[in-house]
Design brief:
Layout: H1 6-18, H2 22-35, H3 40-60
Helix pairs in contact: 1-2, 2-3
């Protein structure tokens, strides 16, 4: 994976999240972390993943 694509992947994840497509947003944030695991944006991606996981756990029951 080319690290140059990290920003577009992150932005697409945000768009999917804003559109309510949480599973796709999570998938893209995971992909983002494969490209960049160290930046401030990576920390935001991790928080996004945690939010989606928590939301899915709460709505699964």
């Amino acid at each position: 994976l080319d690290k140059a694509y990290a920003d577009p992947v992150f932005n697409l994840a945000r768009l999917e999240f804003d559109a309510g497509n949480l599973n796709e947003a999570r998938r893209l944030w995971v992909r983002y972390l494969e490209l960049d695991a160290e930046s401030e944006w990576a920390r935001l991606a991790q928080k996004g993943i945690q939010f989606v996981d928590l939301h899915m756990a709460r709505t699964a029951g």
